[in-house]
Amino acid sequence: MSNHPLIRIHYKRPPNRTQVFEQTLVHDGEGVKVTLARDMPYEPPMRIEGQVVLELGSDVVWFTFPDHWHDVGRFHRADGTFTGLYANILTPPVLGGTEWHTTDLFLDVWVGLDGTALLLDEDELDEALGREWLDADTASRARDEARRLMEGAAAGTWPPPSVHEWTLERCLHELEAERP
Fold first, then answer.
1. Are the beta carbons of 88 and 13 closer than 8 angstroms?
2. Burial per residue of 31-56, b for 16 or more beta-carbon CB atoms within 10 angstroms, e otherwise
3. Exposure winner among 95, 103, 151, 166, fewest CB in 10 A?
4. Of 36, 25, 28, nearest to 80 (Cα)?
5. How many structural domains does the chain have?
6. Radius of gyration over every alpha carbon of the chain, rounded to an integer in angstroms
7. Which stretches of 11-155 are DSSP H helices?
8. Is residue 1, in this structure, part of any structural domain at all?
9. Pure H helices in 80-166
């Protein structure tokens, strides 16, 4: 049996959309689960502040933190160039073997190569609240989490060291080491 199972992350987006992402579990630590999503089907490319941060063929190293209200992705272009960190604000994931479940809370935090944090998609959270896809307490919790991440990024205390330690290169090396 492989030390790197395929994880299926059920990602609910209110009001009624669920996507399932398949990623390889690269590291199963107590405080962080590191997965690798290969060859992302992003067409058209995702742009933040005019820069392509994710495109067709990109790889993303994802960090899932049990009991946390966010995850983090190390984004790359198709050629492997690191573009920055993307945090989804979400419900704490329910981790059941190789099937994980979480709900997107609309807000995202982007940390570019210069270390500056940028809050994304406030309008989407406002719309979700206005349409009653989320309750006021959950929306407030999402805003608090995004604010905490942005303050941590500004202070240099977030993201945790594991996000810098588990680079794309390290993940690929870890997977290659298991091959016969």
1. no
2. ebbbbbbeebebeeebebeeebbbbe
3. 151
4. 36
5. 1
6. 16
7. 122-130, 136-155
8. no
9. 122-130, 136-155, 161-165
Structure tokens at 142: 């999402």
- Quickly tell me which residue has 């942005």 as its tokens: 150
Tell me the pLDDT tens digit for each residue of 14-37.
Answer: 999 999 999 999 999 989 999 999
Query: Model pTM greater than 0.70?
Result: yes
174 token code pair:
């870890």
Cα–Cα dist 58/54, whole Å: 6
The domain that holds 61 is classified in CATH as: 2.40.380.10
pLDDT at 1: 43
**Tokens linked to 103:** 């709900």
- Print the domain residue range for 61: 6-178
Distance CA 168, CA 110 (A): 18
Average pLDDT over residues 108-119: 96
Q: Is residue 141 one of the residues assigned to a domain?
A: yes
Torsion (CA) 74, 97, 91, 160 in degrees, nearest 10: -40
